[in-house]
Structure formats: C-alpha cells, structure tokens
Amino acid sequence: MTLTHPHRQKQLQKLLQKLGLSENSPVQWQLLDLALTHPTISPAANYEQLEFVGDAVVRLAAAELLLETYPDCQVGEFAAIRSVLVSDRALAKIADSYGWDRYLLVANSAAADTAGLESRLADSLEAVLAALYLSTHTLELVRPWLDSHFKQLATEIRTDPARQNYKAALQEWTQAHYKALPVYRVKETTQVHDDAQRFTAEVLLEGRRLGQGKGRSIKAAQQAAAQEAFLSLHQASHPDFEP
Amino acid sequence: MTLTHPHRQKQLQKLLQKLGLSENSPVQWQLLDLALTHPTISPAANYEQLEFVGDAVVRLAAAELLLETYPDCQVGEFAAIRSVLVSDRALAKIADSYGWDRYLLVANSAAADTAGLESRLADSLEAVLAALYLSTHTLELVRPWLDSHFKQLATEIRTDPARQNYKAALQEWTQAHYKALPVYRVKETTQVHDDAQRFTAEVLLEGRRLGQGKGRSIKAAQQAAAQEAFLSLHQASHPDFEP
C-alpha cells in the first residue's frame, strides 16, 4: 500500500471535516483513500473489499442506534426500518449530502453512467464506513455523524408508515428462512378514485396466504399485506408455518 | 432490567470460561442472560432484540477475519465464504460445540421441538455475540474464540470447493440488486454414472443467461453455473447487465 499523495490527503481531510470529525482523528488514510477509489480507476486497489466489510458496519450502526432510540420497539419493526436505512437509496442520499462526487475518484467513462450513480455513492459510503471502523475497531468515527442521518430517517419512517418498506423486509425474511419469494395478488375492489380501500392485496408464500391488506393504490395495498404478514411472522419467534 | 440471579450468574461465568475469556472480562451480565433466554421463557425479555444486533456483529466479525486472512481473495469469493460462515447451520454447530443447551433457557414445550433446534442455537449464538459486542463496543470479546471456528471452516470451504455455496451467494446478490431470484435449468448430458460432466446446468435471471456449468450431480452442475455467474457479475463492478 502506498502513501497517500499530499493533494489527495488534503481532500480526504476536508471530507473528514465535513463529517464533523476532528482532524486529529486516528484515521488510516490509505484505507480512506481506497474507500473513495472506484474500480474503474484501479482494478486491484479500489473500494470493493472495504464495501464488503462496510455492509456489516452499516447494519451494525443502524441496529445499535435503533435499539438505543426505540428500546420498546418490536423486532419486526426494527428489521423493517433497518432495511430502509441500509438501502442503496438512503445511503446514496447521505453521501450526496456531503458532495461525495468531489471525493470519489471515478474514471470518466463510469462517471457518465448516471444510472450507476446511486450504487456508486452507496457502495463507496459503505466502504468509507469500513475504513473508519477499521481505523479504530469501534464505531467512534462512524456514529457521531451517521446517527443523525439515521435518526431523522427513522423518525420519518415511523411517522409516515407508508415509508416503512414491509415488502422489502418480508422478502428478506422469506428468502432467509424459506429460500422463496412472496407472491402478491391484487384485486380492485371499487373503482372510486382515492378510496382508501380501492385495492385489496394478499401475499402468499408457496401457495399459503400470509397476510392481506387494503389501500388507495396497488402499492399501498401490497405494503399493508406485507406488513400484516411480516409482523405476524415475527410475533411467533418460531412460527409453526410450514409452506 | 433485573440483576442476574447468583446461580444463573455462575452458569454464565462457566460459559465465558469455556469460550476462553477471562472471568474479569467486562461483560454486561444482564445482556448475556437475555441472549440466552428463549422467547418461550419471557415474551418481553428474551434474545430477539439482541439477535437483531448480532446478525450484523457476526457478519462484521466474519468480514474482518476473511479480509485479514485472505487479503488477495476476490470479493466474490469472500461473499460466498461468508454466506456459509454466517448460516444457521454453521452457527448452530459452533454453539453446539460449547454444549449450548446447558446455558440456553427454553420452555419445555419449545425444547421438544427438535426441528427448531438449529435456529434456536444459531439465533441465541448471534444474541450472545451482540451481548459481548455491546459490553465493550468492540469485537474484543468475540474474535478471540469465534475466529478459530471461522478460520477452520473457511479453510475447509476453500479446500473443498463444493462447499463454497455460490448458489446462496448468487441468490443474495440478485435479490439485493434485482429483487429477483435466479432460475436453474438442468439437462442430463450423459447417463454415465459418476461422469464429471453428466449434468449441464444454466442459470438465468429474468430470462437472461448468467452462467453455465457441468457436474457429476444436479447440485454440482448448479453450483458450477452459479459460480460462473456470480464471479462474472462481481468482476464487473457495475455490470451492464439489464435483465
């Protein structure tokens, strides 16, 4: 691993400052440099390995925060909220709020790929989380700035239940436990526009009904069905569900 | 949270000793007690919340170990190995090696459910990892004993490639990136028993072929196809794959 170039070092220090971290923080600069280097710049020395570690760091940070902030929350709700917090979309937004593109080294060819922008930002943010974690082997350099983003998003999710992505959470769960995907069936119950019960959805796993729900839109009805399914599966710690 | 009963405290100290940790370790005993309490004992105070944190702790511990042990390994291989390390099956085996059933409090009704044994052990091991992590906010009380199990298993996986679960890794990846499951098609190429090319499998995602492979058994051919697909998807950091 080579020493970080002075110009690059300054750039990285600037980012650290933006994150609200002291310039004397015990940061491993080479790791931070790697975390902000896209594979198109170097096929061998880029953020991919760190992203692999960062995927776990971000889940851990989110879990700790949720447990501390909502000690009485159901585990099912935790999981649903966390799946939103650690999504590419949420992470890319956080990275973007720091003007990430000024720090992330990307070849021009890849930079032109705007469709890949969200995952580039999210992947590299995960890698930075790993670099900061590995610098101290604690979350000391991570939580001071990440917590505030997660807290705000968690509050938004809890006040606006439609943002709680129960479909994603249910899918993750059925995948892990049954290696199968939930299937949704939707019926239009009434054609009255904006009727909160216009659509009825049911969600099935390998033919068995797990839940149902109603909503103003197809998506809302599916989310309601997923919520019922997800919370009931989580209430029973060892559901006697045998698909 | 109540103080831990003296008898229970002794039991937990015994487990700590078995894990090779000093009896003066800064362990939060109430958390460790919770981590070893099944929901059938207490619907409110059990291991479920800790398991939620532990899921991230175990992924982080595995990622750090793999990165340190195999610094030149491809990220695709890391992911494949980690998905085996953090599987219920692997974690339950680790728990079992410490005689976990002597420490895990379970109601008789649930204890009789032998089918649920593997997930009980794995879930509670994850919860213990969380309790130990939360006691110091580092992996200091986790890696000294968990590493040796993971190292041994990782070595076994690497020497016996059939144990590298590329199917699971590919599935996790397509799920995360495309919210879809890979589909396998298998043909019997020859009926010669034990021919290493007896079966040919191809794996598709939403109709597009991702990889193919041959093998002595259906499972081996599918794994070979999954490996080709998984490694090629990972080589291109932003594959121009559009299903």
What's a quick, concise take on this entry?
Chain A is mostly helical and 243 residues long. The first copy, chain A, has helices at residues 6-18, 29-35, 48-69, 75-85, 88-97, 108-111, 117-136, 143-159, 166-178, 218-235; strands spanning 183-188, 199-205, 208-215.
- Under the CATH scheme, the architecture of the largest domain in chain A is Orthogonal Bundle
Distance between the termini of chain A: 51 Å
State the CATH topology of the largest domain in chain A. Answer: Ribonuclease iii, N-terminal Endonuclease Domain, Chain A
Rounded radius of gyration of chain A (Å): 21 Å
Tell me what portion of residues of chain A adopts beta-strand conformation. 5-15%
Q: Name the largest protein-protein interface in this structure.
A: A-B, 39 and 39 residues
Q: Outline the low-pLDDT stretches of chain A.
A: 236-243
Name the shape of chain A in a single word: elongated
Count of the separate structural domains of chain A: 2
Report helical residue fraction of chain A.
55-70%
Structural category of chain A: mainly alpha
Total number of helical segments of chain A? 10
Largest sheet of chain A: 3 strands, antiparallel
Average per-residue pLDDT of chain A, rounded, comes to 87
**What oligomeric state do the depicted chains represent?**
homodimer
User: What's the CATH class of the largest domain in chain A, please?
Assistant: Mainly Alpha
CATH superfamily of the largest domain in chain A, by name, is Ribonuclease III domain
Task: Give the strand line-up of the largest sheet of chain A.
Answer: 1-2-3
H/E topology pattern of chain A: HHHHHHHHHEEEH
Number of strands of chain A: 3
